[in-house]
Every structure is written in C-alpha cells, then in structure tokens.
Amino acid sequence: MTLIMGAVNVTPDSFSDGGRYVRTADAIAHGLQLRADGAHILDIGGESTRPGAERVDPAVERERVLPVIRELAAAGAVISVDTMHATTAAAAVEAGAAIINDVAGGLADPDILRVAADAGVDVVISHWRGHSDDMYAHAQYDDVARDVASELTARLDVAVSAGIAPERVILDPGIGFAKHGEQNWEALRGLPALVSIGPRVLVGTSRKRFLADLLEKDGAGEATEQRRDLATAVASVLAAQVGAWGVRVHDVAATRDALRVAQAWGTV
Ligand code: PMM
Fold it and tell me: Taking the model in full, what pTM does it have?
C-alpha cells in the first residue's frame, strides 16, 4: 500500500498553501485534519522551496516547526520534518519527528546526514542541484531520468558512508527542483528505474507548476487549486502503480480516494 504524506507548510510564502498555516494553532489543526483525511505521515516544513523563495534563518525555521511537531507527534502522528538544515533536523527529531525530509539530499548542509545517522531515523534524499533562487540555471540534463537516477545513487552512497543504514533511505526524484516543465515528465517516466535502485521511493507532484502548465494548455482556463489537486491525485496513483512507496500531497482526501479506486481495481 502506498503511503500518503500530507504536507503542512508553516510558512508565509510557500508555493501552494503559503500563509495559510503560519500560525502554530492553524498548522496543528491542519495537520490533524490531514490525518483524519487519511495521511499516514505529516510532513512539517518551515522554509518554502518555491522557485525564487527567500532562505529562512534556521532559528526562525525551528520556531515555526518545533511546536507543531511536538503537538502532532504527541497526538500520535508519524512526523517528517521538511528541512535542509542539520540543526533544525536534530531539534525536530528531539521533538518527535521520525523522518528527516531533506529536499537538498544532504547537499545544502552535509551535517544533516550525520544527524540522521546518529538519530537512526529515516531520511528522504531528494534530487537537488541548487537553491530555489538559481535552481533553473542547473536544469541541464543529457537524459533526465538517467541523470536523476545516477545522481541519487551517488547521494545514497554518501548517505551510507555517513553511517545511515541503507534501509533508512528514501529516494525522491525532486519533481519541480531544477527541472523545467517537460523535464518533470521525463523524471516521472523514469520512476521504474528509480524504484529498481532499491530504496523506497517518494514522489511529490502536488499542485506543482508543471501540472498547472499541462492543465492550462489549449486555452483550458486557469489551473485552480481544485484542478491541480485532481491532477495530483491521478499522478499519485500513476506513481503508486510503478512502485512508489509514498506520495507527498496537500489534498490528502483526494489522493486517498484516487488510491482507493486503484486498490479496488487491483492495479496498486
Ligand atoms: N516538494 C516540496 C516540498 N518538499 N519534499 C519532498 N520529499 N519531495 C517534494 O517533491 C517536495 C518536498 C515543494 O512543495 P510545497 O512547497 O508546495 O509544499
């Protein structure tokens, strides 16, 4: 069964739900709602990674995420912390996080791998080539699927050398990170190859620009949040069908329902 990771962005400027849950109480309530909707994991982040986003001081990031993590972990939720900072990752584990979700795959702050190794927690290693302010400068590939797989294999080796048990690693193709529209589709077509590397695979397409671009083609009108959520649910089912261990989404209920259909059909 594919797991659903529900995103809780405690940020004023996130790509898709920025500003909505910046207050601690709102973020906690939202996390509880996502859990009731069927999320198996709640992914708590305090720094937006949207294209062009400002970097956040790790101390500010910790102020945003720690109270939310504490409360949701105490309520029994499985928590992942969406951070590139080793100090935030360490504090989050202390507060109850079971997974470190580093969209930079240990490249922004290499200490994060040591933190994950010492804590013995799961770690998501995403494909990443640079911070949001200049990531598109790095969007050059010979073959997107092959390059993503080989760069993630190299990061997996680094993680294991840092003392992380291979079974603790989760690989993520980093959809939307240093990838232009079509390159994201190429990365998604490469999922079977990524799955065959060995570790569990997580996929995050939720509400991303490449989906909106597709939906808006041929004058089909604005890709509203609702339309993006429907497209996300379909993409998540397709990821599940090729062996993704988990999908990271904002609208958990839509993806839960879509996965239920695929499960009843017997395709996932
Ligand atoms: N995408 C975003 C944030 N965190 N984490 C993982 N592992 N994979 C992703 O694709 C991913 C992520 C950006 O999404 P948001 O800011 O719209 O929530």
Answer: 0.96
